[in-house]
Amino acid sequence: MAIEPVTELGSGGALRVPRARVVPLSAPPSYTAAVERYLTGAGIAKSSARIYRISLTTWGWMLAGEPAPTGPARRGAKPPVFPVAAIDNPALPEVLAELAAARADAMDADTVNRELSIARKAIGWWQRQGWIEGDPTIGIERRPAPPDRTKALAENQIAALWRLDVALREKTCWKMLYESAARADEVLCLNVEDLYPQDKRGRITAKGGAIEWIHWQSGTAQLLPRLIARRTRGPLFLTDRKAPAGTPTLDVGSETGRARLSYRRAEEIFEENTRLLANPLASPEDIEDLNGHRLRHSALTRDAEGGTSTSMLLARSRHASVRSLERYARPGVDAVARHVAERDPAARRKH
Hints:
6% strand, disordered N terminus
């Protein structure tokens, strides 16, 4: 931080205090390089870096004045190449507001708000490096996000999920997510060497960068040996194909040459297979209009319904506060249905 020298007097003879000017720590890089330097320099946890990179890639198109691709077109699309300093273009805020509004209309509020928060954190870090001065997102408002009370799968839907005819990789991943109540990005970042099968637990890098344990049950324990086979190192969950050139070494299995399964692809596979479970009355024609449900949310909801203590829920979810557990501690649809049925006067008279 450098302060320009005071050389003038203001009205009435008072000293005019100049505005602080940030001296760039290095020459402003390209946007893509700025993203990578932010993820490293800001200490973003490996489990979160994937989500941050995806969000910042999406913002890359919009910061270049282009609509962000959506759907199948998004996968493999190359982000535009431009210097990060171009973010200070005075015409950008107006264009960006229109692009962000159009994208927000096509996405759910939670995703839009998460991506906006990530973009603002990165922009703030770039400002502190002296690469840019302004924040073109300043006029973009967060979208109202009413809570979705149906995110937890009902008991019959969970049972139906285990009966789905899917690959061993998906069976193992979903079982581990449900039994451990871990975040998807934490599980996808697991390496074979992070597992302690005999103890039914694994070492993960949690949100915020802390090294913690997740624990699973017999369902996962029975599937893991088949998934791991003879591998001793590298990503636990792999893609079906060889890793493309340029894939980070840490995300490539040295014994297979295949890449780590990405969060985006894992989410697509889960949603493709669970949309009809989320709405059993839906027809196949409706599948594109439905959303998948989170196994972590379902597991913690079942725990809360079963009387698990608050302290254990905090430890299992690895949340820092009781307030963050509120959305999980609400009884699910089956628990509410049983509660109502048990108090039905007509049903009691029949017995």
